[in-house]
Amino acid sequence: MGTLTLDLRPGAGLGPFLLGMPVCDAFAYIDQHPDTFDAVQVKYHDEEPLLCDLVVSFPNHGFHLRFEPRSQRLRLIEVFEVQLLQMRYATSSIGGANIAATFVAVYALFGPTFPGTYDMERCIYTLFYPGLSFAFPIPPQHAVSCQGREAELPLEFPDGTTPVMSRVCVYDSSIGGCGVGVGVGSSLKKAVLPPLPAGSLYLEEIHVKLGIELSFATGGQTLTFGLSPQDVWTELGRPCGIQKKQVDPMVIHSASGSKQRTTICGDYFYNYFTRGIDILFDGQTNRIKKFVLHTNFPGHTDFNSYIKCNFIIDCRPFIYAPKLEFGIEESRCGFELTSISSQNTAFDLRPNGIK
């Protein structure tokens, strides 16, 4: 496979990956181009997935995408192996196997900027532009020339050599100013998300009244238990999919009479993947009997099947005497889940205890 070439857009993105895009959109593009992105790694904190970024890495191309864990939107792009990826800016290119990414080359391509900063602990010199930074390792024999002062531009060592770039960061251009931005180490945390486009329904707040209804903060729709499929179409539009509820065969064999007829008749789901919601209808009455709200946590069997649902549960009526029932059940994909039930609400928990 030849070296991949992607357009470098300071403060906006790298190739098809745009700052602020949801992780599901990134995976959709990756799935559509399997020959280009044939090796993909997904990294996350298994015990506390909201503590660290969700990282999608492309080891064969030397870069990865950092998604903010709560919103699951792209906040930072890092190129960590510059020789594996060619970056195109305007009519010129930098990086890759055949184009040396030197300090002088970067300065010539992107023009003058504020003096960079030097990290004495890591021996890294970082040069900042709006929405973009370049990191250059400084050889030990030349480290003294960078200490205690702002480095002169263009940076050249006494022997006439120039450092070679080791890392590129692309982040929202609202960060920094006067030579400050996102570089290495703890400064990676400075990268923030760009605002959502006007009218976007991504991460729309959904307010839950237990046993009563869902209400959508942006669109103003309200779904109550007992509504018909026609009512749901009117409020949310056409579902992304319709799926029959899978029934445990042992339940069918053990059922009798009216219970058996109810079991076999077949409840069904309306799937709204782009809202992170499933709606279960009773197979006999064709009325809503259950809502399933997906958190889209990495490691779950349904990860990336649904956009994360940004729901808020009003549980004030049940503060004083919560009645919880615990049980173990196996999902349709064979993933063992712990189910916690409280009144008319159930939570499926991963084995590590994360909802």
TrEMBL record:
PANTHER family assigned to the protein according to its UniProt record, in alphabetical order: PHAGOSOME ASSEMBLY FACTOR 1, UPF0183 PROTEIN
Protein name: Uncharacterized protein
One Pfam family of this chain: PHAF1
InterPro entries in the cross-refs: PHAF1, PHAF1/BROMI
Family: Belongs to the PHAF1 family.
Origin superkingdom: Eukaryota
